[in-house]
Predict the 3D structure of the following.
Amino acid sequence: MDGAAPLFRMEGISKRYGGVRALEKADLTVTAGSIHAILGENGAGKSTLIKIMAGVVAPDEGAMTLDGSEVSFASPAAANQAGIVCIFQELSLIPELSVADNIVISDPPKRFGMIDRKAQRRIAEEALARAGASDIHPRALVKDLPLSRRQMVEIAKALARKPRILILDEATSALTAADVARVFEVLKRLRSEGLALLYISHRMNEIAELADHCTVFRNGRNVASYKAGTKSDNEVVELMIGREYRHIFPPKSASAQAATPVLEARNLSWADRLDNISLGVRAGEVVGLGGLDGQGQRELLLAFFGVLRGLRGEVLIDGKPVSIASPRAASDSGVGMALIPEDRKTEGLMLPMTVRENLSFAALDRLSKGGIIDRAAEQRLIDDMVGLLAIKTAGLDIPVGALSGGNQQKVVIAKWLMRQPRIILLNDPTRGIDVGTKQEIYQLMRKLADQGAAILFYSTDYDELIGCCDRVLVLYDGSVKRELVGAEITEHALIASALNIHGEGAGQSQGAGA
Amino acid sequence: MKDWRYLMAEQRGTLLALGIFIVMFIIYTTNHPAGFTANVVQTAANKGVLLAFVAMAQTLVVITAGIDLSVGMILLLTNCLASWLVVGTPFETTLGVIAVLLAGLVCGAINGAIVIYGRLQPIVATIATGAVYYGIGLLLRPFPGGSVNEDLADALTGKLFDVIPTSLVALLVVVLVVWVPFSRSVFGRAAYAAGSSETAAYMSGVPIRRGKFFAYMLAGLLASIGGLFLTFFTYTGEAAYASGNAYTLFSIAAVVLGGVSLFGGKGSAIGAIFGALAFRTIGDLLFVFDFDPLWQPLFQGVILLIAVSLGAFALFRVRNRLEWFL
């Protein structure tokens, strides 16, 4: 328990992606036989930090030392060799291979040059048992396992590599409560065996139970390190926020409340990702979806847009129950819905095609007569949109992939505005674009709302939710945990409810006083 | 106890192909005027084995999520080469066989190098190299001709103990010597891993490039074994463009029939062999039913479509429509 010589140390690590600074002179010290928790908001630099540790990306500057000697890793394999193994948030399992195949994948046991299947089976069974998951059959294919089982296989795979430093990045996010308990037993045992564990999680109660040390990251820097249990939840949240507030948001209009919501959901559930969600969005209103990434926000938007099958519960448009079976039906004039997708490169745009073609895709039915596109009408509408959104392009006939990220995003939005939608769903529309364009998008959102659109807006950026939304629904584990209205929407409230502390009606086990 | 069920699930594609083949073959032999005799089986085996070798070659590449449109042309090239080299004394013949197999290996290695290290799309790269291989074959044999060591040819296309077709035994030997070691080696697993999820494989430190390279190289080797057997059946070398293309396309059909996923990462060469045999039997069905041969392509196409559709039922279970496009 006592801090002997550190096992691993990172000093002055910086990393930029394009112009964006992900890490700025970050330090971290890891000692053997302890669990070290890393905390921080979405985008605080935690992921980049562990990617550097695990050899996935190389730092721009800074030094790493292992056992007192300097190291650098050219690939994940090199980091593994040095004893650093990471369990990534995006799973690294190969779906078509069996559990046993996956567990030994980086160094299969060999006999006469061929993989020794008996030895492989034995190693896999041992690793699964060590991970507390001996209920998983080594011959099962990974793609047939539910997410929580895959996560357990991922942990077993990491253990089979005999790591000295084990990094868990949100490794429990997909697990059931029973699994979490078993994983915790395993982690505590590993700590007593002398491993160093780095634990990244948004779940404060998990950190309270497990961690020996904590380090908080903010804006790419480590802002505080402390012994676990010496700070209250509130203080930790303060540490995670602590940044200047930017006044780039348009004023909110006093929302005139219409009687029935344009878009309404009643007890919406889907698979194990959406759990009994009820909400309503009125005309002229901007409603935000908050919470940690991956709590069902994306699925909720897809559910409204007719992408998911096997949906339970009701969707109502103008107070009337409807069943929307495809994006085409959702954008139909009777419903008038538009979804600005999260990944503009795959779901929003056809990158090699021209700006003109991309803009017209969603509105082709309105622009054509008898299957022939009315070029003049198309041009008029496109001119309107390019003007309205101030899209900066060298021409309408260049590939949309040649535009900057911000302008690409404007094309995605314009494409849907060409249909004059009444309901606009936005899935994290400002991710990876510059501040100037962000500001334009905020203003556009407000303008559309003032013109009578109902807007449902998911963002991973809390500032945006505070600055743009009339109401925010915070999702956790596929259900709405809290609704914040007007002045209640503060960064503190958003983070606290996203972490599901101060649980309203959900038990008072976290005794953090405000 | 439950192990055998997982085994069944792993081998489902192969078993389905075996089932289709058995059904087709029973229909074929029961309607054949001569019935189920050693001679009928021998003729069927000799025809089927050629496509089986090419389909095995295709399987290796398809497992890596690639496709090899040059397999048919490697078959032609090695056929032309064999018609020059596999002649003379037993010693000369042996050297000739080795040279032909090496040529196939080199063709496959070139494909692999271009796709993996040149980072070209497999489909374009192998169309181009296929044209090159055909061109070389044409230079070797501008007109059909040449010969082959007939003792060897007759031995490998005849019957063992007057019952078992030798070509089937040869196929079995190739499976044991090429496919089984490959599929159980680290490189074989790397090929599967790369085909299933290249990023996950990279993150896990799998030797992706070498695995894929081996797959392409062995594909060339298997296609050249097919070329050798073509020479043994025909006693000549011929650079027949249409036949090369037909072998390439049929190999893809056979692979799909054999339960190998064109998206990569799934399937086995054994399945592809049964797929190839089934495909050949479908083609021969018309002859035993005494239909007009004009109907053959249409009939073959319809049967193929039905067989391939069996694999698409899983799509009905998808709950997120975006997964249709993954």
